[in-house]
Amino acid sequence: MGVEAPPSNPSAQPGITRTSARDALLSNEDLLDIIFEFVQEAYVDGKAFPQTFSCNQQLLHLALTHKGFRDSALKVLWRTIPGLLPLFKLIPEFERIDGVYMFTNTLDLDKLSFYYAKHVKSISFAGQGDIISPLAYQVWPTVSGRTDIPLPTLRKLRIDCSASTCDYAGALFVASTVQPRLLSIEVVGMHPTSSTFLRQLNMTLCLRHRQVLQEVTLEGDLSAQLLQTILVHLCSTKVSRLKIDIRGEAGTALFKKDIFSLLCHLPNLTHLSLKAPDAPLIQETGPRPQLEFPLLRTLSFNCTPPLAACALHWMISAPSLLSVELETYQGTFLPLPETKDCLNRFVQRAIAHPTVPSIRITQPGPTPLHLPFPADLGISKSPTNLQHLFLGVHGISNTSAFIATLARICPRLVSLVLPATSLDPYYKKPDLTSLAVLAKGCPDLLDIRISLRLHRITPKEYSPQHGFPGERLLKSGAEAAGESISSGHPLKSLGISDAGGDQQFGVTDCISMAQYIHRLFPKLDRLEGYRDAAGGGSGRKETFEALQELISVMGRLILSQGV
């Protein structure tokens, strides 16, 4: 009787194959792309160029030595290149003669250089250390035998005009010879001597890439006449995102009705950003034109309040508008009272817009600027669609009236951020009862950041006469708490700056405030002290920690009772 043979190795049986973990990794192109993307993003500058080195760059170049890693590493190293020099240097017939690079013979485009070219998605032209002769671009059709340059994945050009050695010829060469696939063009550091280049580039883009071009960014010193010329050409394109940043007094041109009359003729415009932080005041003169922006969704300003108010004055119709943002400066040309009035007017117009759900206003400048809101805010009584309001200025006055107005006309409000500093006199500062006004008028609020005077709550402040929403919450004990949990306000997060200063409270004071807040917002998860970006705000840390702990205990108590 023979010995039974041991079972054979399944992997050795015909028709059965087993892939090792190593082979599986090397064959997973998507995973390799993610790995090398991470390597690039972890680089301190966030940039990877073919001929630069860092710790991470060395890893990428090492990866090129392994066949399985090569393509994924190349995608990272060659995704963005600084001009055409890294690519052309790989061509043997591209040589440096008398300090200038040029072509010296006909080219074979199947060589190594254009194996790398297929990975290039963005080219950045700036000052050149090594100079490419402008004549090299002119002889390209002769030496290569073709009229275009094979960059099949190129989608973006960036030109920095600030350096005197900027390769304008190279930028125009790419724009005019690459296949019409450019989606984005960014020109920064513009100055008067670069205007000729800008005119030629604009004409080339609008003629060759008008069916695909989606995003245009212009930044620097740009005359009003040249800006109008550029916009006239862009009206024939499908540009949907436009960002213009003009410094100095020339920035005033951005906010004149002649410019807005051109902007409204960009048929696909959905995102508009205008920046002129130090432009002087202009008056809203003449009849208001009927300017419509049917597809515009986001509107962003970085300027003084009068210019922003003027811009909204010209934009009579933007039915698709979803977001208005203003980063405001007082400016060197404006007296403070006039600045306040214009900023107030901008806020009024933005809030009164029938469709805008989001408004964000910030003030990074050092000059204190606050909003002295009138009692009625000058807004119609019709409800608005506003859902998110962020007022990041240094303070507001007439705060209680403003809160009451928001509660009256903004029933869909979801998040509210007001300044952490109230500039009202002490006896006019809003207190915790303003939360009841917001709870009643804004039933969808989820997040509030606000300056309120903390104080011990008295029984009479639970009455509707003091803004408390509804008689049903006058009940005490688990019954009232149970009702508030089942049908109460959905607010989840509350940040408070104590408008009364760094007051100190006893245990009973904190309990009275916590009970009041819990009755209003039974689903509240987080209560904390509120400080704005400039560090403004008041209140003791231990007070807010005590309120948070008390509210958490109240919530757990109700749940434990099964209410």
Layout of strands and helices, then pairs:
Elements: H1 21-27, H2 29-41, H3 55-63, H4 67-77, E1 80-81, H5 85-88, E2 94-97, E3 100-103, H6 113-117, E4 122-125, E5 131-132, H7 134-138, H8 140-144, E6 156-160, H9 168-177, E7 184-190, H10 195-208, E8 215-220, H11 224-234, E9 241-246, H12 257-263, E10 271-276, E11 291-292, E12 298-303, H13 305-314, E13 315-317, E14 323-328, H14 336-352, E15 358-362, E16 370-372, E17 388-392, E18 395-397, H15 399-409, E19 415-417, H16 433-441, E20 447-452, H17 477-487, E21 493-498, H18 507-520, E22 526-529, H19 541-560
Parallel strand pairs: 1-4, 3-5, 4-6, 6-7, 7-8, 8-9, 9-10, 10-12, 11-13, 12-14, 14-15, 15-17, 16-18, 17-19, 19-20, 20-21, 21-22
Antiparallel strand pairs: 2-3
Helix pairs in contact: 2-4, 3-4, 9-10, 10-11, 11-12, 13-14, 15-16, 18-19
